[in-house]
């Protein structure tokens, strides 16, 4: 047996011996089929609501009843809800600009006195990374907003 034949034989033998085994293993699913959302504010029955995963604020509004004082002008109906989100339906405030930090886009956030484009984008980036704001004081975690700025803009913002 020459060296080429010997190498070929050893290669074939190695391939037969080291044949990979197929293991039938099923990974657990981490997707949830339902989410729970807490609803507060101007709703007839505040509390916990169960919705299908990937529901939007619009889907939520189909299963809750709003009060007559509810102000839906600054609520983004296309926001996708996540498990354990808290949604606060704001009340109408006559004559005062009211911008929802949970749903407002860049153009709406810059309407708040003292908030420029950079800070508005920081608010959106923080919201996208960490979920909806649970309280107005959570804005202190946003780059560019300190205690003085928060007190100056507090009357213009809602959740």
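Sequence proposed for the structure above (159 residues):
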């Amino acid at each position: 047996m020459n060296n080429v034949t010997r190498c070929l034989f050893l290669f074939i033998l190695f391939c037969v011996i080291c044949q990979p085994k197929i293991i039938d293993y099923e990974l657990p699913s981490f997707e949830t089929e339902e989410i729970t959302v807490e609803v507060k504010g101007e709703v007839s029955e505040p509390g916990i609501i169960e919705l299908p995963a990937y529901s939007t604020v619009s889907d939520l509004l189909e299963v809750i009843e709003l009060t007559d004082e509810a102000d839906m002008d600054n609520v983004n109906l296309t926001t996708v809800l996540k498990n354990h989100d808290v949604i606060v339906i704001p009340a109408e405030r006559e004559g005062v600009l009211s911008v929802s930090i949970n749903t407002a886009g860049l153009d709406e956030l810059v309407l708040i006195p003292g908030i420029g484009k950079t800070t508005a984008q920081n608010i959106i980036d923080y919201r996208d990374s960490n979920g909806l704001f649970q309280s107005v004081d959570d804005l202190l975690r946003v780059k560019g907003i300190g205690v003085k700025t928060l007190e100056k803009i507090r009357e213009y913002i809602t959740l």
